[in-house]
Design a protein that fits this description.
Blueprint: H1 3-21, H2 36-40, H3 49-54, H4 60-63, H5 74-82, H6 97-104
């Protein structure tokens, strides 16, 4: 791999990870396991069928937040502007492909008059 393609791959990973790692803009409250508020909260019990039926599901829309797009740095913009499109050549076909196809799908390889 060339240095350019390696840096492009690293840049692509950074750009893709940007929105997922953005900090939420809304204020949040964290409760640590050993803190006093965490100890004072009663742990839910799900040992009986009735307790499991009465449990309310998590509202995913309330907890997911809104992703924010990360602004690109000057170095990222420059590397994207200087980047050249590259591609890799395809490999050789599987030499045993016909043999495997004949073994797995024998009816498809029969002559048109011999098919069921």
């Amino acid at each position: 791999m060339s240095t350019t393609s390696t840096s492009l791959a690293a840049l692509a990973v950074l750009l893709m990870a940007g929105p997922a790692t953005a900090a939420p803009q809304d204020p949040t409250t964290s409760i640590k396991r050993d803190s006093d508020p965490a100890r004072s909260q009663a742990e839910p019990s799900y040992q009986t069928r009735e307790e499991r039926l009465n449990a309310k599901p998590l509202d995913w829309n309330a907890t997911k937040g809104k992703p924010r797009r990360k602004a690109q740095t000057a170095a990222e913009k420059k590397s994207l502007a200087d980047a050249k499109a590259e591609h890799a050549e395809g490999g050789a076909p599987d030499p045993k492909a016909d043999e495997e196809a004949r073994r797995l799908h024998p009816d498809d390889w029969k002559a048109p008059g011999q098919q069921r």
